Amino acid sequence: MNWIGQQMAWIMVSLAISLLFTMWLGLWGLIPAIAIFIGISYYMRRRMMARMGMGGGGGGFGSMLGAGGGINYICIACGHRFKGGACPRCGSKMRRADF
Ligand SMILES: [Zn+2]
To answer: Quick one: 71 and 97 in the same domain?
Structure first.
């Protein structure tokens, strides 16, 4: 359950990989290093979302915005207010932002 420690470990691993790439390829090594870093952080975020019960249906820009800004959405189908990709009450993805 200690996902913060796990995430820190992953960040350390990806930093070590980044360092190896930059030592190996010089400045050009930053490109694969950054790609790996983004890939790992994206994977960790998806795993975290899945653990919080937000994974699956959401995906895409909706959940990215929901994770970043704390934007509330109102379900068009049933009027339920929620955060994330899809309505937890009726499962509808038809929603509008509520600021
Ligand atoms: Zn709904």
So the answer is: yes
